[in-house]
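Running this now, will post back.
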Amino acid sequence: MHERLDGRRLSRATLARQHLLVRVDRRPLDVARDLVGLQGQEPAPPYVMLWNRIDGFTVDGLTTLQLDRSVVRATLFRGTLHMVATDDYLWLRPMLAPMLERRQRGAWGKALDGVDLDQLAKTAAGLLDGGTLTRPRLSRALAEQWPDHSPMALARSIQGLLPVVHPPPDGLWDRRGPAHIALARTWLGRPLSPGVAPSTLVRRYLAAFGPATVKDVQAWSGLTRLREVVDGMRPQLVTFTGEHGEELFDVPDAPRPDPDTPAPPRLLAPLDNLVLGYADRGRLVGPDAAARVGWEAAVLVDGKVRGFWTVARDDGAATLTVELLGPVGAAAEEALETEAAGLLAFIAPAAERRDVRLRVPAGHG
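Update: finished.
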């Protein structure tokens, strides 16, 4: 009979792999690989994700990787923007291509009714062949060919139809402005690497997020029909049973710490895959937080989402507010304030005044 792992054991295993039990002395590129990428719809969150995980991380640590093309920002898992190591992108993009094409049809199929998608992809590739374009410029150029269709739908569809990336200045710290788009082969100067087995993706996911179910892998990646892939990997994996009788898979040599291992407070970046990368988020997210995870930046206390945080700036001041969902105890509050002060100094180093505020719901001491 398989060993049973409760939510606390799963939480500690996940936090260990995600470098959230103890900050590590590792290169940002290595940590990006460890996590199989950083969710990156906005520029700042990948920096915060690395600050949470790397001892002494600085903004330059990720900016340099973007400028020298060691990492790349592109539409990947679940059809969302991620920043991944370039050598990972080369095999991930071909593997995820069928899913990205399906999502393109689902998101923009009605708006592009009557458009030959192969021709759209060919036209866009021709426009991008000379280098990088902003999305508004690409939209206008495509609209000249298809004037009866939405320019936004035409341009945004390209992310599902072609291997394109969003090169700098996109993704740089505190960057604002229109998105830039380039063909991956042009920006990276390297060909894609199709034909990598899906088992590679499963193994990487388990090393970063496991132990986990097949449904978890699918929810994180956006891929379907991975049951057969995982079943074929059984000789190379170890299995456990979850709290509800579900079968959990893992790579043999991954850490699974004692459930009483201390888990310090962490203020997660918005959309951190730590809380999004599962079909069942129960190991980290309780019912009181479930509806808000994915929309707000989560606060971890003792390995569970126990609140959310925001930053407001006004007249030279920066205030980080933590809204707790319930009491966490005096020691945890003190540790949380220290962690929040460190994050605020990272986010707003030039602020003349920085304040941290903790709010506990009315009725709690």
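The chain has two domains: 1-261, 285-359. More later if anyone needs it.
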